[in-house]
Amino acid sequence: MRIAIEWQKMRRTLIAFVAVSAFLAFINPYNAAGTMSYPAAFLYWLGMVGAGGLGGNLAVMAYKYIFPDGPRLVGLAISALMATVAVLIFIVVVTVARGYYVPLEAIPRLFFLILVISIAITAMSDLIDRAFANEDTPPETGKAVEPMAAFLERLPVKYRTAELHAISSEDHYLRVYTNLGEALILMRLADAVRELEGAAGAQVHRSWWIAKASIADEKRQNGRSLLVLKSGTEVPVSRSYHARAKELGLIT
């Protein structure tokens, strides 16, 4: 999902770069492309827009890294300034490569002219990003914490990733059976059963709650059912809970 979202943003950025470059090549502001043909002017503007986009995005990334909660407008201002610097460098390099030079006294005016366009493009990019903000946000899974996992958080750290097998009541304490061993916690069984509502298991006796996945076998003793845990512990099923246990598939 994240890769798909990043590709969507990249594709949208590339389309915007091409569209803006095509438009600027057509209107040729400040006569920046001189007498170049339209295809050449398009490539020239595409280079400038690309340089500005790279400089501005790198600046924003650095700003967000250093000041993750910094004001958005400050980030946009920094982006526009760094985009202007990047474009200015691009123009100077291309001009020199063509055998010309840029007079030092022309730099401040050139910087200002580029800054005007950079501010406009930065503002437009921000509007586009905000318009697509919901589309670029990964959907929430809405997955709640699994009841057994939440209950195991009550146990010592070594048991918190264990497989819950059963719970038995011992006076004011609960003995919690897991695949990693047993632990005692101060809690009433009624409260534990409430916390485990929705989990794959059920109370089968006034003193026992058992997880369905922990059942290894079922036995009969004196006409009553006994559920055998994977650990070998035998859990009685009382008559008052027999129907419910059978309904949930804990016993046959």
Present the secondary structure layout.
Layout: H1 2-27, H2 38-66, H3 72-97, H4 107-131, H5 147-152, E1 164-170, E2 173-178, E3 181-186, H6 189-195, E4 201-205, E5 208-211, E6 215-221, E7 224-229, E8 234-236, H7 239-247
Antiparallel strand pairs: 1-2, 1-5, 2-3, 4-5, 6-7, 7-8
Helix pairs in contact: 1-2, 2-3, 3-4
Structure commentary:
It is a single chain. By secondary structure, the chain is α+β, with helices and mostly antiparallel strands. Helix content is 51%, strand content 17%. The protein has helices spanning 2-27, 38-66, 72-97, 107-131, 147-152, 189-195, 239-247; strands at residues 164-170, 173-178, 181-186, 201-205, 208-211, 215-221, 224-229, 234-236. Strands 3-2-1-5-4 form a 5-stranded antiparallel sheet. A 3-stranded antiparallel sheet has the order 6-7-8, with no helix packed on it. A hairpin with a 2-residue loop joins strand 6 (215-221) and strand 7.
Radius of gyration, rounded?
34 Å
Class from secondary-structure proportions: alpha+beta
Give the distance, in angstroms, between the N- and C-terminal Cα atoms. 43 Å
Separate helix tally: 7
Q: Average pLDDT, to the nearest integer?
A: 84
Number of beta strands: 8
How much of the polypeptide forms β-strand, as a percent range? 15-25%
Oligomeric status: single chain
Relative helix content: 40-55%
Task: List key phrases describing it.
5-stranded antiparallel beta sheet, 7 helices, 3-stranded antiparallel beta sheet, alpha+beta, 252 residues, 8 strands, single chain, 17% strand
